[in-house]
Amino acid sequence: MTGREVRLAARAGALTGPTAGLAPGFVQGNLVILPGASAADFATFCERNPRPCPVIGMTQTGVPNVPALGADLDLRTDLPRYRVWRQGTLTDEITDISRLWREDLVGFVLGCSFTFEHALIAAGIPLKHLAAGRNVAMYRTNVACEPAGPFAGPLVVSMRPLSAGHAQLAIEITGRFTSAHGAPMHVGDPTAIGISNISSPDYGDAVEIATSELPVFWACGVTPQAALANARVPFAITHAPGCMLVTDLTVAA
Amino acid sequence: MTGREVRLAARAGALTGPTAGLAPGFVQGNLVILPGASAADFATFCERNPRPCPVIGMTQTGVPNVPALGADLDLRTDLPRYRVWRQGTLTDEITDISRLWREDLVGFVLGCSFTFEHALIAAGIPLKHLAAGRNVAMYRTNVACEPAGPFAGPLVVSMRPLSAGHAQLAIEITGRFTSAHGAPMHVGDPTAIGISNISSPDYGDAVEIATSELPVFWACGVTPQAALANARVPFAITHAPGCMLVTDLTVAA
């Protein structure tokens, strides 16, 4: 499948679940939609925190398209599943947001680690969570994001256990993906970034770390969702975890 | 002088003119300040046009500081001279905007070619406009920016005449300055980008092109001012031409 075929399947209601592994080689993205009154501060939050929040596309106010990511792309229908937030609280999970779209909404598409996972696998680096058919393990850290207006919160990281040799190779490879979180934020001792119990992730699924492996931590696209919850903005829409926007951009690494 | 010393001189009213050549080695930036209602669309305009509009800092709504660019930086006082725009028309040029600051304003700092000119000179590339004590020559092209909401308009470029060898070296050097317009947009025939009379720039001062030289064109930070005028936003503030924000960031090339 191409990125466009994934979007058309979501638009038709045929695809309502995760996009991991679909349309290999096409860039995937996190989605955040906010009213204009909050959007400028969120743009500033992204500008100040480019590792967890790399903006790869934005809409103009009230127009649910991002032509640079797909000529016929429509943010209201083209993701498999959305989350609706009111006052910072998750209130609904739906597969189409056409009825919720408003003239004052602004959409942000942020880079996603699904983009670099293909490149890691292509380089012969095994990723346990994919092999086990699970979601990646994610943790809230004690590293604070740079705040902007109401948006503030901890850096959230994803973790992949790798051998020392694979960790070094993964640092090199992901360092090239500056629009998809880039190189790891941290390698090794989880307590150094405030993670007290590595076997109990805050989001996603736990994964075992063998004695021959190091935990490798990347900035994660869940970070803005944590900031969104903290900000208690009156209204917001995001993708549902794992159910990303698949774009027409191809992965160049 | 350091970047901070330039800002303090502007704040004290002792510096009210251009910043070219001041605080060598410190990053300088263009300033655009807009009400929140227009700010999200302007952020989208910058995201869609990163070559002319590379965002290097943003304020949160109503707070005139950009800590990442200078701990005590205050956008209301720290530039030598500002332009005030109403309905897209230039209405005033002043040296302090404290009385005009509002709770709904958002400031954008965009990268500036003053940053890479130091590196060109350091590499032995002569820049005629600096030698002559003039402003760089700037032109409106027939290349359209990607529009976003009310913001649309032509790409504006700056031009520097260079020998073929220096042009090649300048392409290499400025290509590293991705936050200051990057590599040239065009080298050679001005008519290819819609410039019919190279001896009559739309902004800045004319400069002679010797028969041994090529005109080399870079995306220019005046581009957003052209888009601002087109957008006829009710209220905006920018720096006055040449009177930039000087930051604490040092030039790393």
Shape of chain A: globular
**Structure classification of chain A:** alpha+beta
CATH topology of the largest domain in chain A: PSTPO5379-like
Instruction: Please tell me the CATH architecture of the largest domain in chain A by its name.
Output: 3-Layer(aba) Sandwich
| CATH homology superfamily of the largest domain in chain A | PSTPO5379-like
Cα(first) to Cα(last) distance of chain A is 20 Å
Which quaternary structure do these chains form? homodimer
Series of secondary-structure elements of chain A, N-terminal to C-terminal:
HEHEEEEHHEEHEEHEE
Give the amount of beta strand of chain A, in percent: 25-35%
User: Which radius of gyration of chain A do the C-alpha atoms yield?
Assistant: 17 Å
Mean pLDDT of chain A: 94
Helical run tally of chain A: 6
Q: Helix content range of the residues of chain A, please?
A: 10-25%
Biggest β-sheet of chain A, characterized? 7 strands, antiparallel
Largest interface: A-B, 23 and 23 residues
Tell me the total number of β-strands of chain A: 11
How many domains of chain A, as an integer? 2
Q: Show unreliable segments of chain A.
A: none
CATH class of the largest domain in chain A: Alpha Beta
